[in-house]
Design brief:
Layout: H1 8-14, E1 21-22, E2 28-29, E3 34-41, E4 52-53, E5 59-60, H2 63-76, E6 80-84, H3 94-97, H4 102-110, E7 115-117, H5 127-137, E8 141-143, E9 147-149, E10 152-153, E11 158-163, E12 166-174, H6 178-181, E13 190-192, H7 195-208, E14 213-219, H8 229-235, H9 241-248, E15 255-257, E16 264-269, E17 278-283, E18 289-298, E19 301-311, H10 319-336, E20 339-342, H11 364-377, E21 387-390, E22 407-409, H12 410-416, E23 422-429, H13 430-438, E24 454-455, E25 459-463, E26 473-478, E27 481-482, E28 488-494, H14 495-498, E29 511-519, H15 520-531, E30 542-544, H16 569-575, H17 592-608, H18 610-624
Parallel strand pairs: 3-6, 6-7, 7-8, 12-14, 14-15, 15-17, 21-28, 25-30
Antiparallel strand pairs: 1-2, 3-18, 4-5, 9-10, 9-13, 11-12, 16-17, 18-19, 20-22, 21-24, 23-28, 23-29, 25-26, 26-27
Length: about 625
Amino acid sequence: MRKTSLRALGLAGALAVGGATVLVGGNPAAAAPTTIQILGFNDFHGRLESPGNTADDKPIGGAAQMAGMIKQLRGENPNTLLVAAGDNIGASPFVSAIQQDAPTLDFLNAIDLDASSVGNHEFDRGFADLTGRVTDRAEFEYLGANVYKGDAPALPESFTRTIDGVKIGVVGVVTEETPTLVSPDGVAGLTFKDPVTEANRVAAKLKAEGAAVVVLLIHEGGPTGGSTAANCAAIANPSTVFGRIVTNTSKDVNAIISAHTHQQYNCSYPVPGLSHSRPVMQTGNYGSALDKLSVTVDGGAVTAVAAELLPIVGYPQDPEIAALVAAAKTEADKLGLNELGRITADIKRATNAAGEEDRGAESVLGNFIADVQLARTKDTGRGGAQIALMNPGGLRADLLFGADNGVVTYAEAFAVQPFANDVVTQTFTGAQIKTALEQQWQPAGASRPILHLGISKGFKYTYNPDAAAGNRIVTMTYNGQPLSLTGTYRVTTNTFLAQGGDNFTVLAQGTNRTTTGDNDLTMLVDYFEANSPITADTVFRSSVAGTGGPGEPSPSPSGSGSASPSASASASASASAGPNPPGNGGGLPTTGVAITSYVIGGLLLIALGVAALVASRRRRVQAAG
């Protein structure tokens, strides 16, 4: 039975607020204007605990504070609907994920969430899990009007609720990219149709059935944050995926609550046929803010919509939810106490200039995880892998040395790889591996333009970022030798990539697939237990062509610089050693060039005497410094 503890106040107040006279069937007669409050959020991702503090050290979000804020806002206007735009679960912190997000679903039930669109992460464990375990526990409606199985919708399309005589309809849709963002096997047999077409179809149906207010929950969003005029104009650019959604959604929709891109904005746009500007909003992520829509309904029609983004800061905690979170944390702590091993220094994801995660850049952590998976699968009986690849989106936290002398626990390892994907090894040609590297530059309309794969030690490549699509990879080497485009290689990935996830479609075309039965998390756990203390390799394995980066072969005789079987093997092997590590003291040179200079120096000693030797030594010491 659905919980009503936090909603009871709203239902009781709805009988007295707004001045409506409600007849049998819920149709208002001679109703005065009514203000409906719609609260929304997106991309909660199981953040039961606060994800951080403000500059003045006040906690942001957290389930207990969020519940307290919702309770306060419901008290101010009991005519309240609470909705979400997907990714409530999945990619969650350890406290929720180790318990398969059951505590998060319990939290959403306790705050009386009315409805949510599905997000791509609701499909992380597959459609059967979503429509079984997840929806069985959820006491709210999960909506996906554009998710089809055959010719029929696979999920509920809409939700309706009548508040103070006003019928409100909610439509939910999810990004069309979902099949590339989750394990394809988990959504086999499903079709993710155009969200605008399906949203407009369902919205028209809701209007025809008497809904005065229709809200669209869409798990898709604008690429940048900010509510300035310039950014709102960019969000509505009809040449972009989300811009087409903003501009092509019909007048039957009164407001759009968006998600997926983890941005925060509050924009409004005029819509022909609507008596008000239509808000398009997103709260960012992790329960840091709430959408608040104040919808005025007069005579059965919407006359005004006011939109606000409210930070979840400075509100009292709800004691019921605080107890729920405390219990979840206690249980998670029990499961995560085991020490796996130690690290000697931070092992981190890539970041941009602002210190934010950058999935478009090479990272020490991405390469380290690729090394872990290669180590587990390189034996002949375990796959015979030569190369391993890791997608950056599968890395959800850093491994930090911290104050406990580099101790890494199960909980910390889980935070890095929470998806527990199986790991497989397949055979690919060198040409297919090159295609996989080319596909790091994502297709037009993808949420991120570049996804930089982690690559295992021994495999290196150079690239030209300014070249045309499909022609950016310049050279590839394996153990110092040029990679043959016609040769075959054994490559390990997680099943997400092996099924073409993140638009790496070529990785679904491998042959002779084998698996060890391990998933990525168990491989990481076993690696820590066998190899601690661990020092990750910090030398990057890709570089811009022509910069002399690690592993760059000499150009081919034609001067094109492209990798081919005829490229200089000796030059590749020499370059594979990479630069001297920092702090090596600048001792005597050991490269082939320096050794040659010693021979020349000896000849000069015989020919020219001691004076020439002194000059030669001086030059060598300057070069070494």
